[in-house]
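thread: overnight batch results

M.L. [08:02]
morning all. the overnight job finished for the chain we discussed friday. pasting input first so we're all looking at the same thing
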Amino acid sequence: MLRVHLDTDLGSDTDDLCALAMLLGWPDVDVVGVATVSDPGGIRAGMTAYALGLAGRDDVPVAAGAEGSLGGYFIQLEFPDVWPDPIEPAPSPPGAAIELLEANVAAGATVVAIGPFTNLAMFEAARPGALAEIPLVLMGGWITPPLPGYPAWVSEQEVNTQQDALAAKVVFERCRPVATQIAATLETFLRERDLPALDTAGPLARLIADQARRRGEEHQMSRLAAQHAVLCHDLLNFQYDPLAAAIACGWDGARIQELRLRPELIGDKLRLPIVEDGIPTKVVMGADGERLARDWSDAVVRASFGR
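M.L. [08:03]
and the structure it wrote out:
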């Protein structure tokens, strides 16, 4: 059984909830803890606890982590997702998220970070080298540009690293992560056609379907799809975080290459150029999006029905 510790900014984009639900239903995976990040007052921890409750997984420990950013926020915090019930914030005592991470790392858990890396950088400062000794998968990093035909996004649009660029620099320099970069996630889709299976499943799956529909409309994803023929016409979102979570679970549908990166701060932005004398880093270069969609849906439905 693979033990997984999830570090997340759940509540800002539906893909965090998609990743959590997938992990709960992934075969032979045990989610042993969730820490939130960029979480003023524990609102994200409250959302996480609510989602776990829908899946009947109140046994999973949740700790509200860093409220702020070591290097200053890149964008203003937002909590746009609508929930069927009022969410009670769940603040934690100072240091609780780091203590949960420390306990799970000591027990051999794989760490999956799908939000800004503030908690990880703080843990690295407290326990130097500890994260370098365990599997660590990040959703983040703008390393190679998207393939031709995909949206020509640039590094400033990659939120997880830029939201706390100083923390991201620490993690890329001192840990040994697998970086699930933006260019790879653009090959993974959440589509309108995926939602009927969620609509007929349990409450967690239905919540994901509701939020995905709203998010697709708010972000005008259909217009983006119309501008890029390589994208599916019924696009609702990219599966950024589920791809990172699947890779952490051993999913072999991704193409991973070792590159040599030099993390550097230019102003308040992180750059990760490929250089001959850089730090060897495993980077996700692409993924089988159709296969991920099937595996993700199966896991979410399984989790929503209590496995």
